[in-house]
Every structure is written in structure tokens, then in C-alpha cells.
Automatic annotation (TrEMBL):
Annotated positions for site Interacts with tRNA: 97, 195, 198
PROSITE patterns: UPF0034
Name listed for the protein in its UniProt record: tRNA-dihydrouridine(20/20a) synthase
SUPFAM superfamilies referenced in this protein's UniProt entry, alphabetically: FMN-linked oxidoreductases
UniProt function note: Catalyzes the synthesis of 5,6-dihydrouridine (D), a modified base found in the D-loop of most tRNAs, via the reduction of the C5-C6 double bond in target uridines. Specifically modifies U20 and U20a in tRNAs.
Active site per the UniProt annotation: 100 (proton donor)
Ranges for domain DUS-like FMN-binding: 15-317
Annotated InterPro entries: Aldolase_TIM, DUS-like_FMN-bd, DUS_fam, DusA, tRNA_hU_synthase_CS
Chain residues that bind FMN: 17-19, 70, 139, 183, 223-225, 245-246
Provenance organism: Fonticella tunisiensis
One Gene Ontology term of the molecular function aspect: tRNA-dihydrouridine20a synthase activity
Family annotation (Gene3D superfamilies): 1.20.120.1460, Aldolase class I
């Protein structure tokens, strides 16, 4: 297995792992728009990799690379086994989820609750590094509120101080984590939904900046509430990289501009017409494999975000389609129906 092209590098921009969002279809779509950003899978549990349909779970198109696999687990042995299995798929990076606040995850001692157990996380990172030569990274929050979730023997359930995060990072660093992707909010493990956990706890960007300042040798990527090119530019003054979440899904064409942040990078001056034309052979291919075209096209609803033709685009690609139409037919119809000036608009006019 070849070493990852990401070894010893920190991607300036990455697209966050998002459940029910960042599947292989969305990643293919993203790669048409950004050539350089690091893409992530959805969070996949170690038990799913060990016991599930591995090809369905782990297969991806080489066009998507570089792509990172994010796993969720709580047992170093299972983590090792899952990463060892995933070696056959040649992901560019393996990432451990220590930031998901969902009670379905934290209730199984996975995700954000792991921030209360830094030594256990260090064991898992060490196990992952034994299983692969690819970069091993971690995504976590700045802290957690673990009331009614953490065991009674914890003196504090609110682990939200800067010093708590610093202690966690230093412990995990010793195990060899090569990059820390930090969502700049705490995670509230009970009482808030995953959506509310992305919005209610206040953003504390300065804590992440401070961590980079005090531990300058670490690769630090910031995540949370980042929506514009200007936001990315601002954060890159203080940290090594930026991870974009929902904004990349809601307004994916913004990604055409992010390649300029990479070394020797430049804007991928693609048009929406070229993106749609790039999707046509992909949709044709997956439909021949028995996959419904809308399974991929649903992830493109935001392609015309805040532009003329947005409503028309959404209506065209959303079923029911005209009788006998394939996904390819829908895309050709879109090219004929949408405003030509918007289809041909590029970032660099």
C-alpha cells in the first residue's frame, strides 16, 4: 500500500464528515468543484466495518481522492481491526470521531463523550497507528457537558475549560495523532439534538487559536460556523487548516474558490454547466449499476444556491421524473432549461 500523499501535510481546506450527507455521491460531486480539498466519509462505526457489508460501506471512486475515512469506536481492539480492514480501500487518512454529540453515539461511549477519557482515546489512536501507515487524525470538540451521561465518580461533568481541552490534546498527542480537527463549541451530551449542538453552544474560536499558539508544532484545523471564503481567510491567519461543514452542502459551488488556499493553488475556475456535464457520465454509470440517479442528485440541490434558476434546478432533479426519464435525461433537460448566464458563470469572470 502506498503512503498517503497527505503524510506530513495539513490540508488548508477540508469538507467535514456529515451523516447522511458526505456519501460517495456527494464526494464525487464535490471533487468536480474542488480539486484540492480533503473530503471525508460519513462517520462509520467500527462494528459496521467489522460486521457489515464492507463494499457497500467502504467503496469509493478513485476520482474522489484525497479522501479520509472517519470511524467511531470505543474499543482499541475493534478500532485496530476496523482500520486494518479498511487498508484494502486505500483511504488517504483515518480519522477518529471524538466530537459527535448524538446520544446514539455517546450512549455507546463513542463520539464526544470520549473527551472525558483521554487515556482511552490515546490507546485507540495508538492502535490505529499500529494498523496503518496512513495519517491518523482526530476530530473533537473544545469540551463537553456530560451531566447525566458521565458516571457518578466524575468530580465534574462540565469539561469546558481551556485547560481541559489542552490536557486532552496533550494526552492524545503522545499517542501520535497527526492532526487535531477542533469544532470550536462544547458538545452537550444530553438535552440538545445534534442540530442544536451545531448551533446553541457558543463558538469559541479564540480557544482554538490559543491552542495553536501554545502548541505551534501541532497541526490544528478549526471547524464550526464557517460559511464564507472570507471566514476561511480569517481563520487561516491563526491555524493550519479550516474544515467546512453544512455550508459546503448548502452552497457547494463556493468550493470552486477554496483551492487557492493550498500551496501553489489556484481557483478551480469551473462553471455550473461543466459541473453538470461532469455528473452526466457518473449518473449514467451508477444507474447501470442499479442505483437510482436521485440518490446522487439529491446532494446537488444547492448547486444554484442564491442564483437564478435555483427553484427550477430543484424541481427538475426532484422526483417524480417524467416517465422513461433517467438521471442523465434530467441533466440534459437542466442544461436546456436553466439560465444560460448562470450556467456559464465562473468564479473568475
Amino acid at each position: 500500500m502506498e503512503k498517503s500523499a497527505l503524510k506530513d501535510q495539513c490540508p488548508k481546506v477540508s469538507i467535514a464528515p456529515m451523516v447522511d450527507r458526505t456519501d460517495r455521491h456527494f464526494r464525487y460531486f464535490c471533487r468536480l468543484i474542488t480539486r484540492r480539498s480533503l473530503l471525508y466519509t460519513e462517520m462509520i462505526t467500527t462494528s459496521a466495518i467489522i460486521n457489515g457489508d464492507r463494499h457497500k460501506i467502504l467503496d469509493f471512486d478513485q476520482f474522489e481522492k484525497p479522501v479520509a475515512l472517519q470511524i467511531a469506536g470505543c474499543d482499541p481492539r475493534e478500532v485496530y481491526e476496523a482500520v486494518k480492514i479498511a487498508e484494502d480501500w486505500d483511504y488517504d487518512e483515518i480519522n477518529l470521531n471524538a466530537g459527535c454529540p448524538s446520544d446514539r453515539v455517546s450512549g455507546n461511549e463513542m463520539g464526544a463523550v470520549l473527551m472525558a477519557y483521554p487515556e482511552k482515546v490515546a490507546e485507540m489512536i495508538a492502535a490505529m497507528k499500529r494498523a496503518t501507515k496512513k495519517p491518523v487524525t482526530i476530530k473533537h470538540r473544545i469540551g463537553i457537558e456530560g451531566k447525566n451521561v458521565l458516571p457518578d465518580y466524575f468530580e465534574r461533568t462540565l469539561l469546558d475549560k481551556y485547560e481541559d481541552m489542552m490536557s486532552f490534546v496533550k494526552t492524545v498527542e503522545q499517542a501520535g495523532a497527526e492532526r487535531f480537527i477542533i469544532h470550536a463549541r462544547i458538545a452537550v451530551l444530553e438535552g440538545l439534538s445534534p442540530k442544536e449542538n451545531r448551533e446553541v453552544p457558543p463558538l469559541r474560536y479564540k480557544d482554538v487559536y490559543k491552542l495553536k499558539r501554545e502548541l505551534p508544532h501541532l497541526n490544528i484545523v478549526i471547524n464550526g460556523g464557517i460559511k464564507t471564503i472570507g471566514d476561511i481567510e480569517g481563520h487561516l491567519r491563526y491555524v493550519d487548516g479550516v474544515m467546512i461543514g453544512r455550508a459546503a452542502y448548502d452552497n457547494p459551488f463556493m468550493l470552486a474558490e477554496v483551492d487557492k488556499f493550498f500551496n501553489d493553488g489556484k481557483v478551480n475556475n469551473i462553471t455550473r454547466r461543466q459541473v453538470i456535464e461532469g455528473l452526466i457520465p457518473y449518473i449514467e454509470k451508477i444507474e447501470k449499476e442499479g442505483v437510482k440517479g436521485y440518490a446522487a442528485l439529491v446532494h446537488t440541490l444547492g448547486l444554484f444556491f442564491n442564483k437564478k434558476g435555483s427553484k427550477t434546478w430543484k424541481q427538475l432533479i426532484t422526483p417524480p421524473w417524467p416517465e422513461g426519464y433517467s438521471g442523465k435525461d434530467i441533466l440534459f433537460k437542466a442544461l436546456d432549461s436553466l439560465p444560460q448566464d448562470v450556467l456559464d458563470e465562473a468564479v473568475l469572470a
